[in-house]
Amino acid sequence: MLSIHQVDKTYVGKTAVNALSGINLQIKSGEMVAIMGPSGSGKSTLLNLMGGLDVPTSGQVIVANVDLAMKNEKERSLFRRSKVSYIFQAYHLMPTLKVTQNVALPLHLAGVTPREILGRVANVLREVGLEARGEHLPDELSGGERQRVAIARALVTNAPLLLADEPTGNLDTARGSEILQLLKKINKEHGTTIVMVTHDPSAASACARLIRLRDGKVEGDSA
Q1: Nearest CA among 44, 35, 5, 29 for reference residue 213
Q2: DSSP string, 39-70
Q3: Number of folded domains in the chain?
Q4: Are the C-beta atoms of 114 and 188 separated by less than 8 Å?
Q5: In which domain, by residue range, is 101 found?
Q6: What is the mean pLDDT of the chain?
Q7: CATH of residue 101
Q8: Which residues of the chain fall below pLDDT 70?
Q9: pTM of the predicted model, to two decimals?
């Protein structure tokens, strides 16, 4: 599913900052992987490269047999529509759109027919346990429910790779545990490859594999 070969990422400003250095990783289809490390270790940078939100300074980032480092911004955007979905700590829901509309948004952008959108949205809301909340606005939901909406929005595209950036970071222990169980269910039942950046050891323990970063390098990789 995902191969990273000798990836370096340097941000150039008044001084150059090496965010990643010599990263080599292989993630198989269907794996559920956690990435941990102290602040500034390169976790979010690595996740952004995996999803084509950014490109490496050097090296290869191959997702579903496509080298994203060789694609321009428009090509990467089109690739993400079908191959990569995201879950963010801050949810990133549109506050003026109802739950069903938020979930349907990526399908509208992809040009899916209205009839198919209705069916797919209904299916994913049922899967995340929010079929009764479809007509509510985000500010009428709890934090856990908002994260479930974000997960439904990620699922509705049927993308084979799901990238999660601190998906339990804004939730209490009980709601965070519910989200982790839902992600494990998605991984098992759909075979979705999940890569999760987290500071939370309990979130990392939900994954079958843990990658540790420090100072922009892989410090450990264990199953």
Answers
A1: 35
A2: TTSSHHHHHHHHTTSS--SEEEEEETTEEGGG
A3: 1
A4: no
A5: 30-52+73-222
A6: 93
A7: 3.40.50.300
A8: none
A9: 0.91
